């Protein structure tokens, strides 16, 4: 019985430790997943951007709601760039994602950090703070896209 429980616990731990890419049944699913997460993030980012750039009136609650979605979504795409997901569906992902994994991870962590700060800035209710954090977050989107997207 004890051995069985230990084996079950070990199996559960192994499942947790499995590479995130193993969560996807096929490369096409991983590609669709990361594109979807980035698309949703972009939609909400645009809503904050409209306020940060004066194209929409500033509404602190709208800023918080959208920034929280952005900060959550920012954590998701990266597990879907696992080995073997460089092809399998139409993708703009550049091969450098898989040859410069440490740098790509750094870029993804930068977005997570900046979008977390954006959510904190939105909670202050201060438009200038939102503008500053929005610009920093947008810069992290762009820095990654410049190198890792589009060829
Ligand atoms: C957006 C969006 C991006 C970034 C990027 C920032 O709204 O969809 O990919 O901002 O353009 O430079």
Write the layout of secondary structure elements.
Elements: H1 2-17, H2 27-52, H3 60-73, H4 96-99, H5 101-124, H6 127-148
Helix pairs in contact: 2-3, 2-6, 3-5, 5-6
The structure holds ascorbic acid (ASC).
Ascorbic acid (ASC) binds next to α2 and α6.
Description:
With 151 residues, the protein is an all-alpha fold. It has one domain: Four Helix Bundle (Hemerythrin (Met), subunit A) (Up-down Bundle). It has helices spanning 2-17, 27-52, 60-73, 96-99, 101-124, 127-148. It starts with a helix and ends with a helix. The mean pLDDT is 91. Ascorbic acid binds at residues 42, 45-46, 49, 138, 141-142, 145.
Give keywords.
binds ascorbic acid, 151 residues, 70% helix, single chain, Four Helix Bundle (Hemerythrin (Met), subunit A), mainly alpha
Which structural class do the helices and strands define?
A: mainly alpha
Could you name the ranges where pLDDT drops below 50 across 5 or more consecutive residues? none
Residue share in helix: over 70%
Radius of gyration using CA atoms only: 18 Å
CATH uppermost class: Mainly Alpha
SSE pattern, N- to C-terminal? HHHHHH
CATH topology: Four Helix Bundle (Hemerythrin (Met), subunit A)
Largest sheet: none
Report the total helices: 6
Approximate shape:
elongated
Say which CATH homologous superfamily is assigned. Answer: Cytochrome c/b562
Cofactors, ions, other ligands:
ascorbic acid
The tally of strands reads 0
* Alpha carbon gap, first and last residue: 56 Å
Provide the residue-averaged pLDDT.
Answer: 91
Q: Based on the coordinates given, report the CATH architecture.
A: Up-down Bundle
Domain count, please report it.
Answer: 1
Q: Tell me what portion of residues adopts beta-strand conformation.
A: under 5%
């Amino acid at each position: 019985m004890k051995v069985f429980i230990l084996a079950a616990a070990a199996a559960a731990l192994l499942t947790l430790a499995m590479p995130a890419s193993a969560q996807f049944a096929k490369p096409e699913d991983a590609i669709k997943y990361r594109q979807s997460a980035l698309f949703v993030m972009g939609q909400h980012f645009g809503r904050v951007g409209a306020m940060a750039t004066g194209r929409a009136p500033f509404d602190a609650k709208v800023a918080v709601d959208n920034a929280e979605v952005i900060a959550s979504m920012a954590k998701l795409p990266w597990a879907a760039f696992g080995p073997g997901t460089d092809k399998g569906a139409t993708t703009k992902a550049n091969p450098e994602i898989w040859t410069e994994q440490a740098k790509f991870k750094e870029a993804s962590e930068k977005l997570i950090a900046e979008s977390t700060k954006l959510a904190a800035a939105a909670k202050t209710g201060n438009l200038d703070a939102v503008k500053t954090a929005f610009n920093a977050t947008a810069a992290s989107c762009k820095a990654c896209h410049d190198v890792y997207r589009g060829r």
